[in-house]
């Protein structure tokens, strides 16, 4: 007999978005633990999807459909979680910096982070440091993800980190940066906590930030 | 030294022949750079100055953007933006926020009814008057190249990238129809463009890849995008014109397809993720390459670094033809003018055939 967890996992990997709710429902009716369904099937599936994307086996459309499938499944299970289980892995604020309108990469990272169990607040594009600061103070996320596609807007990342430090709210906040012109050297130079070359690396980084060994 | 434009020089490079020197090649140079070169302001409608810049600077052609996404800034002033703005104001009078019609912020085709409601006829009414007018301004030997034929980018922009990507898997027929409508407009425009003798080719600026590889699978590109490119290529070749392509990102896995469908020139071989010398060795005998001095180097490098990079390209890539030297994307307003000049001057000084660097 096929393991229902494997069935759910494979459905997410294959992007069977319209089948997933029935499969999850069946697993719940069979008495499987909601938390296990999330971690060992839904999120585990997105790990595979992320790796397949990172290796060029699948592309953005296939990855997005898997993410949507995962979210459909998650919607059914999340209300059943109780106590500590109901909490997300952490909150991430995502934004493209001031002067930059590019958002494809940022949106991919956001979706993949959601797929990995994070609560993502996407503040959009062309975001000023001042607005960013307001939101960080208001939401108090564990992680801030900044994106830039233009070399001319990269200095805004540095400015954001400087302002966060000046305001004294940098200590409990991990900052990760990404985007086509950004690299590890730049990230270190501006004082970011990490750099993700793509959506998969960004998720791995976010997990490391919260001490997740997965 | 007075430079005389000669499109045959560029054509020789396209056909992998060495002539007097390595041609210079760009698809776009910001007006501020053109202005610095000429010592006076140059604007979008100042075609006489643009012709003067491109010929005096050493180029053999004048690129003229004519498409739904021109004239002016693509998502702020272009034809498609005006059409979308009119539609938004008709449906929601009093809207003042430009984000309501700017394709950088919004999209219009999400579901099938949106496809039918879209003002395709208005979008198809592409103004070719500028392209026609420059014919009278071009000096002897110089040609115009129509920068047109954006199919992939315009389709996903109209649909919004995430929605486009999802629909490509979940409702493929809708995506196919948007591609078809967009391509039909571009192809119809090309037929009119090629009625002008001074137009020597079409340059499709259509980014297909991220730095990590294609934006959608090569399979999907072969199914939905490349058949339209092939029609463009066939039309170009039937009319004795050349087909040039621009794409950012790592397109190495797409090179065989682009060559097979008939692309004559590929630009810029994105220096942030591809090695021009390696790509030239692998594909250079089958396709002409234009590029690829990094834009970041143009912004932050020294003139000495620029000269060294140009010399390396001339040494490694120019022998045998099939190469024109230019930037790694386009020359934007944030490139240092001195670096642009160093790129051009080094090519003119050391790019004489046979290359002896």
Brief descriptors of the model:
heterodimer; A: 214 residues; alpha/beta; 5-stranded parallel beta sheet; 10% strand; globular; B: 357 residues; 7-stranded parallel beta sheet; two-stranded antiparallel sheet; 17 helices
Summarize this entry quickly.
The complex is a heterodimer of chains A (214) and B (357). With 214 residues, chain A is an alpha/beta fold.
What is the overall shape of chain A?
globular
- Tertiary shape of chain B: globular
**Arithmetic mean pLDDT of chain B:** 93
Helix count of chain A equals 9
How much helical structure, as a percent, in the residues of chain A? 40-55%
What is the chain-wise order of helices and strands of chain A? HHHHEHEHEHEHEH
Structural class of chain A: alpha/beta
Helix-strand makeup class of chain B: alpha/beta
Give the fraction of residues assigned to helices of chain B.
40-55%
Q: What is the ordering of alpha helices and beta strands of chain B?
A: HHHEHHHHEHHHEEEHHEHEHEHHEH
Round the Cα radius of gyration of chain B to an integer and report it: 20 Å
Q: Most extensive chain contact?
A: A-B, 24 and 25 residues
The main sheet of chain B comes to:
7 strands, parallel
CATH superfamily of the largest domain in chain A: Cobalamin-binding domain
- Total number of strands of chain B: 9
Tally of helical segments of chain B:
17
Q: Into which percentage range does the β-strand content of chain A fall?
A: 5-15%
Number of separate domains of chain A: 2
Q: Strand arrangement, largest sheet of chain A?
A: 2-1-3-4-5
* Mean pLDDT over all positions of chain A: 90
